[in-house]
Amino acid sequence: MTTHYSTCPLDCPGACALAVEVENGRLAHIGGWKTHPFTRGVICGKVNRYREVQEGARILRPLLRDGPKGSGRFREADWDEALEVAAGRLRAAMARHGPQTVLPYYYGGTMGVVQQKAVERLAHHAGFSRLGRTICFPIAESGWLAGVGATIGPAPEEAAESDLVVLWGINAVSTHVNFMTLVKAARRRGARLVVVDPYRTRTARLADLHLNPRPGTDAALACAMMQVLLEEGFADRDYLARQTDFDAGVEAHLATRTPEWAAPVTGLDAETIRAFARAYGRAARPFIRIGLGMSRQRNGAVNVHAVSCLPSVTGAWPRRGAGALFATGAAFRVDDGPVRRTDLADPAVRELDMSRLGRWLTDPGLEPPVTALLVFNANPAGSCPELGRVHAGLAREDLFTLVHEQVMSDTARFADVVLPATTFLEHPDLYKSYGQYTLQLAEAVLPPTGAARCNHEVVNALARRLGLDGPDFSGDSEAMIDRVLTASGLPPRAELARRHWIDCAPPEADTHFRAGFPQPGGRFRFRPAWSDPAMPALPDHWPVNRRDLPEAARYPLDFMTPPAHEVLNTTFSATPSAARRLPPRLWIHPEDAVARGIADGDRVAVYNDLGRLHLVARVTTDVRPGLTLCESNFRSGDFPGPGNLNHLAHGDPVAPRGGPAFHDNRVEVARMVS
Ligand SMILES: Nc1nc2c(c(=O)[nH]1)N[C@H]1C(S)=C(S)[C@@H](COP(=O)(O)OP(=O)(O)OC[C@H]3O[C@@H](n4cnc5c(=O)[nH]c(N)nc54)[C@H](O)[C@@H]3O)O[C@H]1N2
Ligand SMILES: Nc1nc2c(c(=O)[nH]1)N[C@H]1C(S)=C(S)[C@@H](COP(=O)(O)OP(=O)(O)OC[C@H]3O[C@@H](n4cnc5c(=O)[nH]c(N)nc54)[C@H](O)[C@@H]3O)O[C@H]1N2
Ligand SMILES: [Mo]
């Protein structure tokens, strides 16, 4: 048996360092790499059981559609034939409508620098439509940049030195398990844990204090905390004056945002808010880990910004073990130009927002129409909002869809051509992280399964069939890693292979903004320069959630689809472990259940303007009255009828840069007579 270093390619903040054991050419076991400073030997159960994917129902050969669209009927082909069919269909589509008729769609299947965005260079060379990558990050990122200015913050490891850890809108037990290792270490030294989440998550169960505001009301909570901090002498006036744009206008505004004001908005008691504010104010080293949860709301960016104001009020930022962390991405000075060739992107070429894929595929007025879709690293037929439209679009007979996949995903079922993809164990890559500061190199540790090829090679082969030659489309993944390392001024691959990771953490003075913030003028901003003038000028509750819209009366219940423990978006959803989650459960409070004659275990219909799903009720006080949820995500077929939870999810672009409000939808629920 041999043990190899690798990195988890999945879309989690941890980018876990892995120890992969191989025996007789097969995967024997995956665990955490013990000496990696962030992973520390701990990984999640999903990747621990990765053999369920590696040796599960993989796609082994190229497949060509052999039945109606979406039927999942295919015949096997060899690479030559499949690539020729694909190139022929693409050429025909472009001849008729021009290159912008082709839309690449790629996201989080792998986060590797070389594999994730490989299709971009083909798209830029050929002039395909560009993809607006909004589905996850831009709402939260906009909120963070509004105040702080760059996606860096205190190293997560410092949380272990904190005396008050706040997990705000992040279900870390399920989505960021290594952070919990640090929380445990802090607690052993006496730290308290506060969790702010609308429902009692696995993480909330572990908290000393769990606050469960109504979804989309975090800014109200944060403003009320600031009011208490300012009024009761917890504010650091000197810090506010030196390092922020705080002034009498901000103070006068916040003075009106009392806990009594926030109570009816958030659904929390004024006394609970006060107690949390005081605990925060008294802590010597309060560390807030901001998750994406509160950003998946129509007022999400405003919420994230308001929470990021708290350490500015108390002057906690400069202290070791204190401050706030949202993401670490800006620390990685990796030049992925050779992979993406963004320099070739023509600004005149349209950009289509991935979160509105269903609209682009079904809008008869779109000119040119999308008649070819190239899907890599993503499963939009499961992960995209407004799924009814996505499915209707993918079912179009005049749409050519190519899907590069490891497994028969919901999207692959709709494909004309399916190409088999390697897993991260079968191709090399470089990995940045958005939750810690190491850059890792993972080499291939297993041969490809069947005829699988990696994204890099598929993009190159397709480009060559389309007549694009030259250095951008030749050479293997290792050669591309070399080009990226050289462009970035990083050590050569052989050195990285020996070291496994390099620490890219900025100096501590920078992650604590001791010399100022990465903003024009160097100050933290209580007054964001939002690009959207409709957004509030100061931290405030912004009442634009679905519950504030006229439809609220027709659909009286809030509905969220937060990450589930056993799957990662739709990845793993076909594994035996995921099947144990079935049937899909709708969490509903006893009051709301009784009012609808629903008992625990009853079959219920959950519906809104977009769609209707059948789930099984889980009647529980883990959600507050008025809130329902289903821990996402499932496959089509896990519910009676097509599609999944995203049938009920709107894709409207959230201010200021777009992105869907996955946890801000409204539904009505009815008991089904069986
Ligand atoms: N209801 C609801 N929907 C959500 C969310 C939610 O909270 N609620 N979360 C959203 C978020 S945060 C995100 S980031 C998106 C993610 O949405 P997607 O990016 O679509 O992620 P997945 O659904 O996990 O699908 C990734 C696919 O990539 C494939 N894959 C893995 N590795 C490779 C590879 O190397 N090459 C190729 N070609 N394919 C590969 C996997 O088999 C998998 O089918 O989902 C969003 N959807
Ligand atoms: N097991 C597992 N791990 C994952 C994923 C997964 O699907 N499953 N997805 C991966 C991906 S792509 C991402 S982006 C990350 C996301 O990881 P997180 O940041 O943890 O996930 P979020 O969807 O942002 O939701 C986090 C929590 O926010 C809560 N929430 C919803 N609305 C609000 C609100 O208005 N205010 C507050 N305070 N909380 C709110 C939800 O109830 C949820 O418990 O996780 C990654 N890791
Ligand atoms: Mo995500």
Written account of the structure:
This protein is of the alpha/beta class. It has four domains: about 1-55, Phosphorylase Kinase, domain 1, CATH 3.30.200.210; about 65-130 and about 335-505, Rossmann fold (3-Layer(aba) Sandwich), CATH 3.40.50.740; about 140-325, Dimethylsulfoxide Reductase, domain 2 (3-Layer(aba) Sandwich); about 545-670, Beta Barrel (Barwin-like endoglucanases), CATH 2.40.40.20. About 30% of the residues lie in helices and about 15% in strands. The chain has 25 helices and 25 strands. The chain has a six-stranded mixed sheet, covered by helices on one side. Strands 20-24-21-23-22-25 form a six-stranded mixed β-barrel. α8 (about 220-230) packs across α12 (about 270-280) and α11 (about 260-265) packs across α12. The radius of gyration is 25 Å and the shape is globular. The N and C termini lie far apart (about 55 Å). The mean pLDDT is about 95. One ligand MGD binds near residues 135, 376, 407 and 662. This is Anaerobic selenocysteine-containing dehydrogenase. Pfam families: Molybdop_Fe4S4, Molybdopterin, Molydop_binding. Belongs to the prokaryotic molybdopterin-containing oxidoreductase family.
Summarize this structure briefly:
With 674 residues, this protein is an alpha/beta fold. Helix content is 29%, strand content 17%.
What's the total count of β strands? 25
**What is the class of the largest domain in the CATH system?**
Alpha Beta
Neighbour order of strands in the largest sheet: 5-4-16-15-14-6
What number of domains? 4
* Helix vs. strand class: alpha/beta
Rg on CA atoms, Å: 25 Å
Helix content: 25-40%
Mean pLDDT: 97
Biggest pleated-sheet summary: 6 strands, mixed
Oligomer: single chain
CATH topology of the largest domain: Rossmann fold
Distance between the termini: 54 Å
Ligand roster: ligand MGD, molybdenum atom
| Strand residues, percent | 15-25%
Please count the helical segments.
Answer: 25
Low-pLDDT ranges: none
Architecture per CATH nomenclature, i.e. the level-2 architecture of the largest domain: 3-Layer(aba) Sandwich
Shape: globular
GO molecular function: iron-sulfur cluster binding; metal ion binding; molybdopterin cofactor binding; oxidoreductase activity
Organism: Thioalbus denitrificans
Domain 4Fe-4S Mo/W bis-MGD-type: 1-58
Cofactor: Mo-bis(molybdopterin guanine dinucleotide)
